[in-house]
Structure formats: C-alpha cells, structure tokens
C-alpha cells in the first residue's frame, strides 16, 4: 500500500494523524489502528474501513447498443436486504431495457441517454445503508436522427 498511502506532515503538528489512502481498493477493507506516542503518553484509535465497489462488465469503454451489466458489492458483513439503483438521481425502473439480475441492472441496448451517474444503494439487515456512484460513459453517435445531411458546396461538413 506504500505507494497509495500518505500522512500529512503539516497536520501532525495540529494533532491530526489521519491516513489517506488514494485510490482505495477492495483489498483495503478492514480494521486500521493508529498509535501515537508523545513523551510518556500513548494514544490509540481504531477505524474500520468498509469498501463498496461498482463494476462494469464489459469494462469501459461502453459502445452504444452493446449489452452491459453494472454490479455493486460491499465488504459489509451483515445480510443484504435490498439493492436499489438510481440513474442521474432517478430510481431505475425494471422494463424491457433494464432488467435486474440479483440487483445488478443489465442494459441490453445502451443508448447515449444511459450515460451519466449510476448510484447503487445497498440496504442491510442491521439497518445500514451504503451507496456508491459510477459515472458511465458511452461511445456512440449523438447527432441528428436523420441520416441524410445536406451541406452547401464549398462549405465544411
């Protein structure tokens, strides 16, 4: 983790012993403990890091009209009760375009309108609600619906 972890030296003088992990990975989940010794005084604290991941299959880039699957997983230990998905802050409906497979939306023919923020929200038996967001980018044509375009001779088209 050494390449992804840092402690802000300037913050240490003010009593801030925060550990920054960037980027966080699934394998980073677990219990972290800090020990700080000053003169004869020793302070300690424990922090549990939970990790939630949203994955895309196949991996980016997504091409318009090629099927995709979004999935969401968390390191939380309680039983999963519900998975909800939101696209640009709106609940994702189950329809002919979106089908939920164990809480993972499949988009059979993604369009440019499917690009944007996808948020998965996981609700657990211990009442915890955890969420993560994935910014979906789709490669495709977002131009006129008419396939015939006229341009004046001598101009750029």
From TrEMBL:
It is found in: Cell membrane; Secreted. Belongs to the LAG3 family. InterPro entries: Ig-like_dom (IPR007110), Ig-like_dom_sf (IPR036179), Ig-like_fold (IPR013783), IL-1_rcpt_fam (IPR015621). Coiled coil: none annotated. It comes from the Eukaryota. GO terms for biological process: adaptive immune response. GO terms for cellular component: extracellular region; plasma membrane. May function as a ligand for MHC class II (MHC-II) on antigen-presenting cells (APC), promoting APC activation/maturation and driving Th1 immune response. GO terms for molecular function: MHC class II protein binding; transmembrane signaling receptor activity. This is Lymphocyte activation gene 3 protein. Interacts with MHC class II (MHC-II); selectively recognizes stable complexes of peptide and MHC-II. Interacts with FGL1 (via the Fibrinogen C-terminal domain). The gene is Lag3. Gene3D superfamilies: Immunoglobulins (2.60.40.10). SUPFAM superfamilies: Immunoglobulin. Residues 50-131 form the Ig-like domain. PROSITE patterns: IG_LIKE. Keywords: Adaptive immunity, Cell membrane, Disulfide bond, Glycoprotein, Immunity, Immunoglobulin domain, Membrane, Repeat, Secreted, Signal, Transmembrane, Transmembrane helix. It is a single-pass type I membrane protein.
